[in-house]
Amino acid sequence: MPLPSYVTFSDTLFVQEVDGELVLLDTETDYYFGLDAVGKAFWDTIEANGGDIEQSIVALLEMFDVDEAILRRDMAAFLRQLEEHRLVRTESA
User: Fold this and answer.
1) Read out DSSP for 42-81?
2) 28, 43, 69, 80: which has the fewest Cβ within 10 Å?
3) pLDDT over 90 (residue 20)
4) CA-to-CA distance for 68 and 18, rounded, in angstroms?
5) What residue numbers bound the domain in which 63 lies?
6) What number of other Cβ atoms are within 10 A of residue 51's Cβ?
7) 90 domain residue, yes or no
8) What is the rounded CA–CA span in Å between residue 23 and residue 93?
């Protein structure tokens, strides 16, 4: 799956950090979703880069000692899961 260019977070999303992890709550559906430390790093980096996925990939490559292809694969899976639960919207350039 190719990576989208941008991500927009749902307007109905409540995010709370708990013990170094994130809990996401869609206030419209009452769906809870938990992110571990890696998911939190992805989330925080995307948020810090205004939803720009390429900028987020660059930032994450500087943070973690990981192969870029693996990071891109993991990011695609992460975004696909969030999008399936309507926690984010993705768009391609």
Assistant:
1) HHHHHHHTTTBHHHHHHHHHHHS---HHHHHHHHHHHHHH
2) 69
3) no
4) 29
5) 6-85
6) 19
7) no
8) 29
Asked if residue 80 belongs to a domain, the reply is yes
Q: Kindly compute the dihedral angle of the four CA atoms of residues 12, 89, 74, 71, in this order, to the nearest 10 degrees.
A: -110
**pLDDT at position 1, please?**
61
Query: What is the total count of domains within the chain?
Result: 1
Longest pairwise C-alpha distance within the chain: 38
Region of 18 please: left (phi>0), alpha (psi -120 to 50) or beta. beta
Count of CB atoms situated within 10 Å of the CB of 30: 7
Helix (H) or strand (E) holding 32: strand 31-35
- Amino acid type, 61: L
pLDDT band for 92, please (50, 70, 90 cuts). confident
Structure letter (DSSP) for residue 14: E
The answer to the question of residue 27 being in a domain is yes
pLDDT in tens, 26-80: 999 888 899 999 999 999 999 999 999 999 999 999 999 999 999 999 999 999 9
